[in-house]
Write a structure and sequence with these properties.
With about 500 residues, the chain is mainly alpha-helical. The chain has 17 helices and eight strands.
Length: about 500
């Protein structure tokens, strides 16, 4: 029998349950601090903050985005295990559970656990004494990090589960979780409007930006650049074009895109992202202890079984001879168990280029400068600053395509479409495609070859109820104040 859990019950138990898991990043036994026990010192606080980062299972968003859209086709070969079938066929109902990642419900629960843990740290750290100026600075910075990660998780939830495709301030958003859940008997939160959630996120990120020092540079935790990048993401979602430009420009001045071809290749082929010298603004570490969070294993098993293949539509968008991304993101080996197949290689592939054992242990790139450059290009285009938009688009393409020559695009709509196409290519399998289509209310359109000539699942317009993800039915059953999205 399926156990029904509300947010309140999941969140109340999250600190003790998730802290004891063996597959989260940087969670030490000392991080398992009971809710009733106050932190004793800054070491306790820092360990608990590490645990918040370790709770975020970023692969879930990549899973939803890729299988919902035109990034993948279902795997091929006799060893294919039918992973992602529910999402790919848009058959999800509000309580369906795909065995790989609990379909849509998994990301909802996981992100609210992240938020709850961050809220617990924010409250429990207040009375913790500091022994010196260094600890005082650490305390201030950790508060900023927890505010930021709380805001970032709310952004992800808002973009995935809002009741409307594009941003609509007066319509239902998600639960704005301002404090941790304390009393499961009385805590039954309802959904806030999208505008209310945005205001809450903006407040969290603004305070975080002021608290995190500009010289703090550990990209495995949240830096000021990561906070500002998140402000750009939020502004892009809400169509606040000037704020997109201002925020993206502030980060790009510090962390420009990678223009060296070898450096870009190494960004995806090196399992541990270097602290400096790349365009990664924030990453989540993947280690042997938390391999269950690896993105590469969404597409293949360690034995080479293929769960999903790159969409032919996506493959055909690349200049396959000159675009560095094509050879880095995809691979077509000539000798594999089921013969030559297209494989997704962005987070590892079996077999790999060096024919060495693969375990998909690659750090997850949560935010990159290329995302911000294309966000700024889109904002410039929307503001009718076509020259600036062309410059940003040309800069990204020139960095990725050998001997690229840019022809300015003079029609606004054509330019925006070109920028969205570049986001499709540059950010594939990073959890952005569904969001990009959704926020602009664009039809999810697949090539016939990617759906095995099944026209029923070729196109999904924004007007279709299945275009909007359902709130997990377990949540609706357990919480009488939880409103379900239409059509479920």
């Amino acid at each position: 029998m399926k156990k029904l859990l509300s947010i309140s019950l999941v969140l109340l138990s999250a600190m003790s349950i998730v802290s004891c898991r063996k597959d989260v990043v940087n969670v030490l036994p000392s991080d398992a601090i009971p809710v009733e026990q106050a932190f004793q010192n800054m070491n306790d606080v820092n360990n608990a903050a590490n645990g918040v980062y370790g709770t975020w299972q970023a692969r879930r968003s990549s899973y939803i985005s890729s299988f919902m859209t035109d990034e993948v086709r279902l795997g091929t070969g006799t060893e294919y295990r039918n992973i992602g079938n529910i999402l790919f066929n848009w058959l999800h109902v509000s309580d369906s559970q795909d065995w790989r990642d609990a379909e849509t419900g998994g990301v909802w629960t996981n992100l609210y656990v992240v938020i709850d843990r961050a809220n617990r740290v924010l409250e429990r750290m207040i009375p913790v004494p500091t022994e010196n100026a260094t600890e005082a600075a650490l305390k201030s910075r950790i508060r900023g990090e927890m505010l930021a990660i709380r805001g970032m998780a709310h952004i992800e939830l808002l973009r995935l589960f809002s009741a409307t495709a594009s941003y609509s301030g007066s319509d239902l958003g998600v639960v704005a979780q301002r404090n941790y859940a304390q009393d499961v008997a009385t805590y039954f939160p309802g959904r806030s409007t999208q505008a209310e959630v945005v205001a809450f996120i903006d407040s969290s990120l603004s305070e975080a930006r002021a608290l995190i020092p500009s010289n703090y540079a550990d990209i495995s935790r949240i830096t000021r650049n990561a906070v500002i990048a998140s402000q750009a993401r939020l502004a892009l979602y809400t169509r606040n074009w000037q704020k997109v430009v201002d925020s993206a420009s502030a980060v790009l001045a510090n962390v420009p895109i990678t223009t060296n071809r070898t450096t870009y290749e190494n960004l995806w082929r090196t399992k541990v992202v270097p602290a400096t010298g790349t365009e990664v603004i924030w990453k989540l570490n993947v280690t042997p202890a938390n391999l269950g969070n690896a993105i590469g294993s969404l597409w293949q098993d360690l034995n080479g079984a293929q769960q999903a293949a790159p969409a032919i539509k996506l493959l055909n968008t690349f200049d396959q001879a000159n675009d560095v991304r094509y050879s880095v993101f995809f691979r077509t080996p000539t000798t594999v168990p089921a013969g030559a197949r297209n494989l997704i290689a962005k987070y590892g592939v079996v077999p790999n280029a060096l024919m060495v054992p693969e375990n998909f242990e690659y750090d997850i790139k949560m935010i990159r400068s290329s995302e911000l450059l294309l966000a700024r290009a889109e904002a410039y285009a929307e503001m009718d600053m076509l020259t600036e938009a062309n410059n940003d688009l040309a800069a990204l393409r020139a960095a990725r395509i050998t001997a690229y020559t840019h022809t300015p695009i003079t029609v606004k709509e054509d330019l925006i479409n070109a920028i969205l196409l570049e986001r499709y290519k540059e950010l594939c399998y990073e959890g952005q495609r569904y969001i990009d289509l959704k926020r602009r209310e664009l039809t999810i359109s697949r090539e016939l070859a990617d759906v095995a000539n099944n026209t029923v699942i070729q196109n999904l317009p924004a007007s279709n109820a299945k275009y909007i993800l359902p709130i997990p039915q377990q949540e609706v059953f357990a919480n009488p104040n939880m409103q379900q999205n239409d059509g479920y």
